[in-house]
Amino acid sequence: MKTLASLTTGLFLLSGATASAERLITSLSSHQVLVSSSFTGTELVLFGAIESDAGTTPRKTGYNIIVTVAGAPQQLVVRRKDRIAGIWTNAESNTFLGAPTYLSVLSNKPLDEIAPAETLRRLDIGPNLIPRMHVAAGIESGEETFRDALIRLRKQRHLYIDDPAGVTFITPNLFRASIRLPAESPVGIYDVDVRLFADSQNIARASSAIEVVKVGIEQFIVTAARDHGILYGLFTTLMALLTGWFASIVFRRD
Amino acid sequence: MQIYLPIADLPVNIFLLFGMGLAVGFISGMFGIGGGFLMTPLLIFIGILPAVAVATVTSHITASSASSAISYWRRKSIDIPLALMLLIGGIAGTVGGVWVFSLLRSADLLDLVIALSYVILLMTVGGLMISESVRAMLRSYQGHPVVLRRPGSHTWLHGLPFKFRFKRSKIYVSAIPVIGIGLIIGFLGSLMGIGGGFLLVPMLIYFLRVPTATVIGTSTVLTLVTMASATVMHAATNQLVDALLALILMVGGVIGAQFGARAGQNMKAERLRFLLGLLVLGVGIRFAIDILVQPAELFSIRAVGEGG
Predict the structure, then answer these.
(1) What is the ipTM, given to two decimal places?
(2) Mutation test of the interface with chain B: which of A243, A245, A254, choosing the one with the most B Cβ atoms within 10 A?
(3) Is residue B191 a contact partner of residue B112, using CB atoms and an 8 Å limit?
(4) Looking at beta carbons, which residues of chain A come within 8 Å of B67?
């Protein structure tokens, strides 16, 4: 991340030097999402404006925006089933050390039309946040890699979102993006990284954050189970005994 | 209505869960069993991790066996000294089961072992139940009276030392097979998320000659105490018991059991055993298909530090 930071500063200096500075100003509809038992997902709206000075030279191709929303990095194990002695069971696995729990990449057009893949990779934008692995030996070409499988499975659960039409320009200098958070959104701080591109170059950046917090009975249960295991077990058992006792009274037949 | 299960970490329809509780409760009431061998697989089939399913079902069975233990207590059909002796083995077996469960889980073998145990145990027991009940039904069609093995006849088990007399059951047996049976049930129960009633009752009848008057009441006590202690142990060691999931299941379960018990009253014993055998075998076959046929999805993701 240090190299990224210095790279970005470098870019700012560069764009400052050419005296054609655009400024990116963004605002989120909310910075905190409360997840309760009945949470079925939500949508946050990000508004942004591109401010240019009087001296800014007009861009040939117009502005493009890429918004990357990433949950905290997490250690994920991806396993693949294989037939061993006639039985399908988990065999090979790959561990991804810093895969984001949630990843949403929104843009106003497909990423490859905004900037070359190499530039995006250098800036750690979009799917490049998912760590790459050396392809394990034994996997033939044509087979799905663990990384592809990770992305596909996360997309199925709407935890990874790829939307090349997720950013809409209202006027040439004003845009909005809707960030969808599914029911299963993991808790934590989500980084919101907004990049302004013009002529295939990243010319400005704005950062923000969303906090996803679990509240209510659900959070209480998770904390209790983790921090007070024995007490939690005793309580659950007591609840079971009371349910059984209650049923035997309500349905007593003699 | 979707509800988010905190430990299972999954949104599930609350009515689906409640309905599953009702259905399994109905079947368990009908056959006089705890229903764990049905509930655990059902939870696994709807996508809950096997480890969470096993740990949570232990508390579900606690509730259903508590309600039946109370009614057997009122009818005085529990042999308390026999239950206590079974429990010596039962608690030890539960400790062992939870310990092996944790070991397998850290070695990443738990899902496979749970599936294999279900295949082997359920297909064997289901097959035995079906053949035994079919023979009994044939005999009664041919006009012969149904004769179970005569109580009081001796097997090698009766030659073992440390004999005890259990007054209410009118049996005089060695402590070794009693504790041994408790051990097996406690171990399998906490490892597989089953109460073990469908194994325990036949074992008590055939090996110890416990009479029908006390066999179910006494077995319920063993199920209740082993499952209650398994809940506490699973919660303390692996933190996989989902209290919210358990609550929904157990409320459905105890209600369903009442209707099931009524439905079961008018059915012949061997027909009940035949149907139960079919059910047990069916779940076993379903598990076998799951591990023998290539799954549609080969990949799975697990966050390190999460259940599984």
Answers:
(1) 0.83
(2) A243
(3) no
(4) 243-245, 247-248, 251
Instruction: Give the Cα separation of B126 and B137 in Å (integer).
Output: 16
Alpha-carbon distances of A8 from A1, A3, B252, rounded to whole Å = 10, 9, 58
Coil, strand or helix: which one is B171?
strand
CB contact B296 to A (< 8 Å): no
| B141: CB partners within 8 A, 6+ apart | none
What six digits make up the tokens of A143? 């087979």
How many other CB atoms are found less than 10 A from the CB of residue B293? 9
B95 CB contacts (<8 Å, ≥6 apart)? Answer: B186, B233
Rg (CA), chain A: 24
Per DSSP, B7 falls in state T
In the predicted model, what is the mean pLDDT of chain A? Answer: 81
**What is the rounded distance in angstroms from the CA atom of residue B264 to the CA atom of residue A135?**
58
Length reported for chain A:
254
Nearest CA in chain B to A151: B301
Q: In a 10 Å sphere around its CB, with 0-12 CB exposed, 13-18 middle and 19+ buried, how is residue B41 labelled? A: buried
In tens, the pLDDT along B171-195 reads 878 888 889 999 999 999 999 888 8
Q: Could you tell me the pTM of the whole model? A: 0.77
Could you tell me if A157 lies within 8 Å of chain B, comparing CB atoms? no
Q: Which of B235, B237, B304 sits opposite A77 (nearest CB)?
A: B304
Residue B112 to residue A89, Cβ atoms within 8 A: yes
The answer to whether B299 contacts A144, with C-beta atoms less than 8 Å apart, is yes
Q: Which residue has 């990443």 as its token pair?
A: B108
